[in-house]
Design a protein that fits this description.
Length: about 290
């Protein structure tokens, strides 16, 4: 079993390529959740924040499915889809600088920056942010859910809820040193207000064009970067009148450039990098 590992700002993924194995009639039955649990384990597997399955598509150039280390399947992954775009370009599955990718969050448009035949970066049209509570989903009465109250472990916090095809709960903080990240992150992820759980972003405002973000990802825990989380954080920061509509987002693994354009679409620009290529020889993993 051949695998390739890639990362976007330290948010790392194992690729499982099924593009040519199945044709356009549809994928064969695979136990992707179990494969994700095995391959993503950092002691007994390859180690990754997610498993990306590359598939053919009848509505786009290619289809991406992603599975968390716990086997759950999120709708989308911003860092993952940039890696996906570079992967299918480099494999010659789609040899052009504008790619359509099918995801559970819909079909997305990806613009590749190519220099001397090499992909140097990817700009993703992430679509319009979803602010209706029932579609995020979050059990709230106001629309949009901005500055709402959230009680966790006996403390009350203010949060803003946004979906970028997957749910996000954004909290603003002033000092990361005072943040009980390891307890607050998982408690909010599984809070009863979020019927499908949620990603959790803790955001510090640095300037009108700059924020810092730390993320607890649904189904994965702490990661070095989250592309959809960076988009949701910029949207939430704009809704709370804290920044302008385009900003640099600093994450533990590096920076992303996020624009909430006047067409109401959110655009994310960032890198996609290879880690290694290998053969899995252990039949317990494959």
């Amino acid at each position: 079993m051949e695998i390739i590992k890639m990362h976007g700002l330290g948010n790392d993924f194992v690729f499982f390529d099924r593009f040519y194995d199945q044709g356009t009639a549809g994928e064969t039955e695979e136990n992707y959740p179990e494969l994700a649990r095995k391959l993503c384990h950092r002691q007994f597997g390859v180690g990754a924040d997610g498993l990306i399955v590359v598939l053919p598509s009848e509505t786009a150039d290619a289809r991406m499915r992603i599975f968390n280390p716990d086997g759950s399947e999120p709708e989308m992954c911003g860092n993952g889809i940039r890696c996906f775009a570079r992967y299918i370009y480099d494999k010659d599955y789609v040899r052009k600088d504008t790619i359509k990718a099918e995801t559970l969050a819909g079909n997305l448009t990806l613009h590749l920056t190519i220099e001397e035949g090499e992909v140097k970066g990817v700009r993703v049209d992430m679509g319009e942010p979803i602010l209706r509570p029932g579609l995020i989903p979050v059990l709230a009465q106001t629309e949009p859910v901005v500055g709402a109250k959230l009680e966790v472990n006996g403390q009350v916090y203010q949060y803003t809820a946004v979906s970028m095809g997957n749910p996000h709960c954004v909290l603003f903080i002033n000092d990361y040193a005072k943040l009980d990240f390891d307890h607050l992150g998982p408690a909010i992820e599984k809070h009863e207000l979020f019927p499908r759980k949620t990603n959790v972003e803790f955001v510090r405002i640095d300037s009108p064009k700059e924020i810092t973000m730390k993320v607890w990802e649904r189904g994965a825990g702490p990661t070095l970067a989250c592309g959809t989380g960076a988009c949701a954080s910029v949207v939430a920061s704009v809704l709370n009148q804290k920044i302008e509509r385009a900003a640099t987002v600093h994450l533990p693994g590096g920076d992303l450039w996020i624009e909430w354009s006047q067409d109401n679409h959110v655009y994310m620009t960032g890198p996609a990098t290879y880690v290694f290529k290998a053969q899995i020889l252990d039949d317990k993993l494959a």
